[in-house]
Design goal:
The complex is a heterodimer of chains A (255) and B (629). With 255 residues, chain A is an alpha+beta fold. Chain A is built from nine helices and seven strands, in the order E-E-H-E-E-H-E-E-E-H-H-H-H-H-H-H. In chain A, strand 1 and strand 2 form a beta hairpin. The longest helix of chain A has 21 residues. In chain A, 47% of the residues are buried. Chain B is an alpha+beta fold and 629 residues long. Chain B has 15 helices and 23 strands. In chain B, the strands form six sheets. In chain B, strands 13-12-19-18-14-17 form a six-stranded antiparallel sheet. A five-stranded parallel sheet of chain B has the order 6-2-1-10-21. The chains are: A alpha+beta (255), B alpha+beta (629). At the A-B interface, helix 1, helix 3 and helix 4 of A face helix 1, helix 3, helix 4, strand 13 and helix 9 of B.
């Protein structure tokens, strides 16, 4: 049986260390299965008894975003990270796991991604509706628009695009591509549009769109292949139009 | 003292979020407790769609047909008032989600598109690509965020429900919750508690559920005296792909287009829907066995029937490549279908390394849904004492239970597309029950002596201390693996009394070994070993409920199939199994309770004829039931 080594950056804030685990490679094994094996037998490569590795997980089918981490430096979900192809790609018998470094570290591979959800509040990430009791259908939306909305709405707030972004760090306030994508989504829906102006104002303020340096790392790592570059460009146009309008004081309700 | 308008909602899936939203609309302050960021709840995993008889294709569909097919699909074990009221409200719920901006697939004119699911002949399922649950959850997440900003909802994410606080009069007054990040236990007070903690698939380990679906919250409540109903009814989804860490769902809508087959063997025989023995196709040729066995619905028979047929075909030695698997063939899909199912295809390819557009998928049934759950009251709208009782209240006063974690709507088998609608319906209904419930309360939680809360807190702290100081030899994850093997072996597609008796004893042995565990981690910082070991205590009790419930039910109904008793037995078992906890007995105490079958006559469940409005006797259903919630 072939074996491989997981090198895991473990520990808590200010107290991180690398621990190695040697595991047997089973067919179709993913990183999660490997971590589960360590839970059952928490013995490191040196043969010492250690604590099981701590990581976040839920759906294990790449739709909840929980199990995101840096795998050989690349942000992705560990459930769809199959061991064999990664080893083939790097030509080694080692895989390196680390927590996202742009968020407060909780422990081992778990970080606190609350910032994403706080930013969604900042951009008023919702449709403004009249409660849940109305018996009306929503506004009609042509399939073409729905397709754009659906793609944006598959964003699971996993943070891959954010940790990959050079302007999204512990010390900056940039909202990042994921949140820009959501702003575009809400601006597309007729009931989301009622907050469009405020949303664009936020995008013009601290942490707004101008903090994007167009590195385009985001689009490379998005597990849902969302066209984040397009979203940033489109929202940039909206911001420009909005700024122009603000300047000239037009507030036509038609817009 | 005025009753504080404050409620605790445990669970941030569809049921919990819709409850939180409706409560906030009433101006009630909601404390929303969730193991994870609510946006990561298990509801995101639902793929295919949500059912509502909106009759968008003008096929003569009606909420009453939806209700009848739900009741029939559940082999008549569902409580009919709950089902009828849900199906009547379903179209309005779809409209609500549409207004929220949920990204439903559209027809050419921009209206909602619909498709067909199992157990019906109507196009009744509204959907968003292949991630309907995700899109619905996000739509509700956004509304909850809106109320959060307004200060009406307060979230406690990465927190876990540990215990219900019950006052001296037996009334729920809050919970003990634990912060996962530091294992700190705290008291959270309110005047009612709503539990919406989903299913328990992770007890079986190999299931389509998220790993956070442990059933632990219901297990804890069960140990505090909550009645648990129909535990033996576990849905096995016919089409999942195997994996070491979990099984992965391939949506039921695939069966609307793909064909299920194996290579035939005419020397073997199988029983069709008329009870006739038919040959297993032609030797060496493709045998589309579901189409052969079930003429009207074919590949779209309900899940329990499809899962059983696949199991039988594999037992006959016809499994693909000699393994327990059959083909789900999507190789003939045209471009537009490929596009619709792209995300599902991608998932399949990621986990198996094979392209389903080129090679037929290989699938096998897997644990998917928990029909059983907390026993809850459900006074029908027409009942004389409707306003003296409360919908979705458990036998623990002031503790409500909604969504997958309650038992009432799906009976012995759930139809595809009904889970999402039932979760949202439950959440909205329970949201409307709170003010009437508060109205009859005589005391506010602020009048309850502090000792009541402190005692509850002390119990949880003592158990934490006990677990942390264990010096035994057993590993909690190893025990879980062994428990899951018993459950998968004896409590899934086919059940035998002999093995069920053994299963009960084996689970008890694991419970004994659980006393002899040792935690490989004793720190207080996000100690997942402790968290899971703590959950495991309640999980063991519910595992016993499942096995013992299956053992006692000597019949076959919906998802529960016993070859020794192959027929449904309405005389003895048209009843809900009720389990109660008894620490002295060492096993759950079981009894049976009547099913509310007031609207539709209990009939044989077959799928030979199309159900139409004209074919239904609706005379017992009041004509003035509301079509909204």
């Amino acid at each position: 049986m072939k074996s491989f080594t997981l090198q895991i950056l473990r520990g808590t804030e200010g107290n991180q260390y690398v621990e190695e685990f040697e595991l047997e490679l089973t067919p179709l094994m993913n990183v999660i299965t490997a971590l589960m094996e360590i839970q059952k037998r928490p013995i490191n490569k040196k043969g010492e008894l250690t604590t099981p590795v701590v990581w976040e997980q839920a759906c294990l089918e790449e739709v909840c975003g929980s199990c995101s981490m840096l795998i050989n430096g690349i942000p992705r979900q560990s459930c769809t990270a199959m061991i064999q192809p990664i080893l083939d790609e790097t030509g080694t018998d080692k895989i390196h796991l680390a927590p996202f470094d742009c968020y407060p570290l909780i422990r081992d591979l778990v970080i606190d991604r609350s910032r994403i959800f706080d930013d969604l509040k900042r951009i008023k990430g919702w449709s403004e509706v009249d409660g849940s009791r109305s018996t009306e259908f929503g506004p009609k939306i042509l399939p073409k628009t729905q397709e754009v909305m659906y793609e944006l709405s598959t964003c699971m707030s996993c943070g891959c695009c954010l940790v990959a972004c050079p302007n999204y760090t512990k010390t900056t306030q940039f909202v990042g591509a994921a949140v820009v994508g959501q702003a575009r989504l809400y601006n597309l829906h007729p009931n989301g549009k009622s907050n469009k102006e405020e949303r664009l104002n936020t995008m013009m303020g601290k942490g707004g769109l101008h903090e994007c340096s167009k590195a385009q790392n985001c689009v490379q790592v998005c597990p849902k292949k969302i066209d984040l570059v397009e979203a940033i460009a489109e929202l940039g146009d909206q911001v420009t139009a909005h700024a122009f309008k603000e300047f000239f004081g037009s507030n036509s309700p038609e817009e | 003292m005025a009753i504080q308008q404050e409620v605790i909602v445990v669970g941030g899936g569809l049921a919990g979020l819709s409850a939180a939203m409706r409560l906030a609309e009433h101006g009630i302050l909601v404390h929303l407790v969730s193991l994870t960021k609510v946006k990561r709840s298990h509801s995101v995993c639902a793929q295919g769609g949500i059912n509502a008889a909106v009759n968008l294709k003008n096929e003569g569909d009606s909420p009453y047909i939806h209700a009848y097919e739900t009741v029939k699909g559940g082999d008549f074990l569902a409580n009919q008032p709950q089902v009828v009221e849900m199906c009547l409200a379903a179209p309005q719920i779809i409209k609500m989600l549409d207004r929220f901006g949920c990204t439903f697939n559209r027809n050419l004119e921009g209206g909602l598109d619909v498709r067909r699911f199992g157990g019906t002949t109507f196009n009744r399922t509204v959907y968003c690509g292949s991630s309907t649950g995700q899109q619905l959850l996000y739509a509700l997440d956004e509304q909850v965020r809106r109320y959060e900003v307004k200060g009406l909802i307060k979230k406690y994410e990465h927190h876990e429900f540990m215990r219900l606080v019950i006052d001296e009069e037996g009334i729920s007054r809050g919970i003990i919750l634990m912060d996962h990040y530091n294992l700190k236990m705290e008291v959270l007070k309110a005047n009612a508690v709503i539990i919406g903690t989903g299913g328990l698939g992770f007890m079986f380990k190999k299931s389509t559920n998220s790993t956070i679906c442990t059933g632990a919250a219901n297990g804890r409540l069960f140990m505090q005296g909550m009645e648990y109903a129909n535990g033996e009814f576990i849905q096995i989804h016919p089409t999942s792909i195997p994996g070491h860490d979990k099984l992965r769902l391939m949506t039921e809508t695939l069966r609307g287009f793909a064909r299920v087959w194996v290579f035939g063997d005419e020397t073997k025989q199988i029983k069709d829907e008329n009870g006739n023995w038919i040959p297993c196709g032609k030797t060496g040729e493709r045998w589309y066995f579901l189409e052969d066995m079930y003429k009207l619905l074919g590949n779209l028979v309900p899940r329990d029937i499809a899962a059983r047929a696949i199991h039988q075909v594999c037992e006959l030695g016809l499994g693909v490549e000699g393994h327990k698997q059959v083909y789900l063939d999507c190789t003939g899909f045209d471009e537009s279908l490929v596009k619709k199912f792209q995300s599902v295809f991608e998932i399949y390819q990621k986990f198996t390394g094979e392209d389903p557009k080129v090679k037929p998928m290989k699938i096998y049934p897997g644990v998917h849904y928990t029909m059983g759950g907390a026993f809850v009251d459900y006074p029908a709208e027409e009942d004389g004492d409707r306003h003296l009782r409360f919908k979705y209240m458990t036998n623990l006063t002031g503790c409500f239970n909604v969504g997958e974690s309650q038992y009432g709507i799906h009976g012995a088998n759930r139809l595809g597309g009904n889970s999402l609608i039932s979760c949202i319906f439950d959440g909205l209904v329970v949201g409307d029950e709170m003010q009437p419930y508060f109205h009859q309360l005589k005391k506010d939680y602020k009048e309850i002596p502090e000792e009541v809360f402190e005692r509850a807190l002390a119990k949880e702290q003592a158990f934490k201390h006990e677990l942390m100081s264990k010096k035994g030899v057993e590993n909690i994850h190893q025990l879980h693996e062994e428990l899951s093997e018993i459950l998968v072996r004896d409590c899934t597609v086919v059940r035998h009394n002999e093995s069920l008796e053994k299963a009960v004893q084996e689970i008890k042995k694991i419970r004994q070994r659980y006393k002899n565990i040792r935690l490989d981690d004793t720190s207080n910082e996000l100690n997942q070993t402790f968290i899971f070991a703590n959950q495991f205590r309640g999980m063991l009790e519910i595992a016993l409920v499942i096995a013992k419930g299956a053992l006692l039910r000597d019949e076959s109904r919906g998802g529960h199939f016993k070859p020794e008793f192959p027929d449904r037995d309405d005389v003895n078992f048209l009843k809900h199994t009720i389990a109660t906890y008894d620490p002295d007995e060492g096993e759950p105490v079981m009894s049976f309770r009547e099913v509310d079958t007031r609207y539709f006559t209990v009939a044989k469940r077959d799928y030979k004829k199309k159900v139409t409005l004209e074919s239904l006797d609706l005379s017992k259903i009041p004509s003035n039931l509301p079509a909204y919630v």
